[in-house]
Amino acid sequence: MHPRDVVRLLLLAGLWGGSFAFIRVAVPELGALWLAFARVALAFAALFVLALGRRAVPSFLAHWRSYAVIGIVNSALPFALFSFAEEYIGASTAAVLNATSPFFGAVVAALWLKDALTLPKLAGMGLGLAGVVVLVGWQAGPLTGTTLVGSLACLAAAFCYGVASVYAKRNMRDVPSAAMALYSQLTAAIVLAPALMFVPLPSSPTPLVVGNVVALALGSTALAYLLYFRLIATIGPARALTVTFLIPLFGVLWGYLFLGEPLAVNTLAGCALILGGTWIAARAPAAPLTQAGRDEGSA
User: Fold this and answer.
1) How confident is the model at residue 293 (pLDDT cuts 50, 70, 90)?
2) Which of 154, 208, 266, 293 has its CA 20 to 30 A from that of 32?
3) In the chain, what's the furthest Cα-to-Cα distance?
4) What integer pLDDT is reported at residue 298 of this predicted model?
5) CA distances from 124 to 62, 133, 266 (A)
């Protein structure tokens, strides 16, 4: 791997890991829905300005249905769920639970694309599940209802990422990655906007909150998407997905350095189990796609 790609990979992991810290700071003032909307709206604006500057604004109508699906499942829902979750749990816990998304992707691929759940995949998923149990259930104090709800919201967000990855693999192979990044944020903003009528308008945010929202939208969303798709082009999707192993590490690190979250034993142990399980499952060879999988996966 070229040194520049290594730098890109580490920067991407740092930005995506940092998103959990940004959310933790901003969500108490803005609320989950307003924060998720601000994130995707600002990210779309930044990506659109960039596309205008390059004179390369892609067509929206050609693949609008796919943009809508990815915008909802890969941005609107998980961003709102993670924002909701971090009203109750720490950034470190949310970052680690995010690493379960490959397990959900494997299950969805098995059901939808008929990809076999091989023994290594099942072993990895079992190890990851044990990590979730350790992370959520092994607390210094009693497990509260709010902690459980927040953790379940994170797992639901990770499930959304798993579904989105399989959908994109089957239905968006011919869609330019820059267009996918741009219009997925637009459709996410469109979907989230009506829900804002049902939640209170947040009071004037502090400069600290504004700074975290801007960093979340421009750094952890717009710039991160550009880095990710650049990595896919230079090193391939499989190697680009190794960022999954680094995001929780950065998430825990940023939570410790900037939010004062403790490096608890259950956090470190759960992180190790989940990452170990992800590594085992990711190394498992993919089964060839059956004809039934091709037929059922067609749009």
Assistant:
1) very low
2) 266
3) 56
4) 36
5) 39, 14, 19
Of 94, 73, 80, 79, which Cα lies nearest the Cα of 151?
Answer: 94
| Whether the Cβ atoms of residue 172 and residue 63 lie closer than 8 Å to each other | yes
Question: What's the half-sphere exposure (Cβ side, CA atoms, 13 Å) at 251?
Answer: 27
Quote the pLDDT of residue 284.
Answer: 61
Which of 80, 114, 105, 95 lies closest to 21, judged by CA? 95
State both tokens at 253: 């690190």
In this structure, which amino acid lies at residue 69? Answer: V
CA distances (Å), origin 228, targets 41, 199, 221, 260, 284: 19, 33, 10, 29, 23
Global pTM? 0.85
pLDDT in tens, 16-71: 999 999 999 999 999 999 999 999 999 999 999 999 999 989 999 989 999 999 99
First-to-last alpha carbon distance for the chain, in angstroms, is 35
Select the highest-mean-pLDDT range: 44-48, 87-91, 176-180.
Answer: 44-48
